[in-house]
Amino acid sequence: MTPTLVRQHPSHAGTTPRVDLRARARDWSEIQERMLVPLYEAVYERLDVGGGTRVLGLGCGSGLALLMAASRGAAVTGVDSRFPERLDLARRRLFPGTPDGHGTADTHARADAVRVVEGAPRDAADPSLPAFTLVTAFEPIGCLAGDSDGLAELLAQATPLAGRGAAVVLAGWGPPERCATTSVLRVATKLADPLRSAGSWRPALRDDLEEVAQRAGLRPDGSGRVACPFGYADTDSAVRGLLSTGLFDAAIAATDREQVDKELAEALHPHQRPDGTVWMPNVFRYLIARTP
Fold first, then answer.
1. In a domain, 115, yes or no
2. Number of structural domains the chain divides into
3. pLDDT tens profile 82-126
4. How many angstroms separate the CA atoms of 121 and 57, rounded?
5. What's the average model confidence in pLDDT over 195-221?
6. Domain that holds residue 113
7. What is the DSSP secondary structure assignment for residue 31, as one 8-state letter?
């Protein structure tokens, strides 16, 4: 039997929570990732993603957005440096029928159409391939203080790989009053507060995306809002899905998993329907910018 991969996360509170990263990656791909499908669809439809599109997906995770672009005929490359377990799932999705997710001779022959790279955007550079025509950063910002800082660096590495005038898409949380999940995310801040160095929740600001684009030297070229409700089969599924985002890691480090599970379940209670399902309407915003 293959041993379960467990990674230890350092805790400023003097404890070391143990996280089963394979289980978390499965929860992400099976429960949480699909919540942003309306966002992916809206962007791809607006930009007419298809056979002539070359997509570079930043923070691609387990690859659902890449798979959707590939199904429209686009050539896709995904990069992620934070979640190798999610990347394993992305490879299995994008190279079906290969147990290790790394492909066979046939899949390697189409490596110019489908690529998954563990590392930074610069690691996806390949002078033998055409420039990217679309760069996506679908992980929404505007949830934790400072959560856009790393994005600017990713864009700085990614934009030189894109052609002149290529589209770059950034995503963010909508106004708190239109995001029911806001009240649930505040649990992370409340429990993590003793960790002064941890990020804290803050509402999304109107110009978050524009500021990131400006820092990256990009030119805004349109925006939109998309309804992305978070729906779960039950409270347990909702807790697992939300924990898979990593947004509650500081809270777990400050207290413990049991406490976080309990308070998350309580915060989800107002969103539970009579049939036991959990439903939280949300609105996300996206910005389309252009490379110089």
1. yes
2. 1
3. 999 999 999 999 998 755 545 443 444 455 699 999 999 999 999
4. 9
5. 73
6. 17-180+202-231+282-290
7. I
Q: What is the mean pLDDT of residues 54-75?
A: 97
CB atoms within 10 A of CB 104: 11
Q: Encode burial over 232-267: b for 16+ CB neighbours within 10 A, e otherwise.
A: beebebbbbbbbbbebbbbbbbbbeeeebbebbbeb
Q: Is residue 52 predicted with pLDDT exceeding 90?
A: yes
User: What CATH number should be reported for the domain holding residue 127?
Assistant: 3.40.50.150
DSSP letter for each residue of 207-259 = THHHHHHHHTT-EEEEEEEEE--EEESSHHHHHHHHHTTSTTHHHHHHS-HHH
Q: Global pTM?
A: 0.86
pLDDT digits (tens, 9 = 90+) for 240-291: 999 999 889 888 988 889 999 999 999 999 999 999 999 999 999 999 999 9
Any domain includes 257: no
Is 264 contained in some domain? no
Residue 246 within any structural domain of the chain: no
